[in-house]
Amino acid sequence: MRGTSWNAQKLAGLELLDGGDFHPYRRKWATERKHLPVQDVMYVGDWLDVRSLQACYQLVDAETLYAVVTEPRKLRKKALANLNNTVHNTVHERS
């Protein structure tokens, strides 16, 4: 039996999403905001745990995967050298 949420979605002309009454819309909302700072998304979406936000609500999507592959951040030589030194020093500190 369909609940009140389903009736409200139908009356509002919303696309019905699979996976529950409320959580599919929460997942969609969180996924559409993956590019924003996680602290801000957590605050506005009322998440207390970053792991639940990222593992359960921010889903993999084709547009973001495409951006990951096609939009690398270009590092300047100096920035890259600083990064390599930081990584090298961190590895040796842990040894």
What's the short story on this structure?
The protein has 95 residues and is mainly α. The chain has one domain (22-94).
Q: What percentage of the residues does DSSP assign to strands (E)?
A: under 5%
Q: Report the count of strand segments.
A: 0
Number of domains: 1
Major beta-sheet overview: none
Please state the structural category: mainly alpha
Distance between the termini: 60 Å
Order of helices and strands: HHHHHH
Instruction: Choose one word for the global shape.
Output: elongated
Unreliable segments of 5+ consecutive residues: none
Radius of gyration: 20 Å
User: Level of helix content?
Assistant: 55-70%
Q: Can you give the mean pLDDT?
A: 83
Multimerization state: single chain
Total helical elements: 6
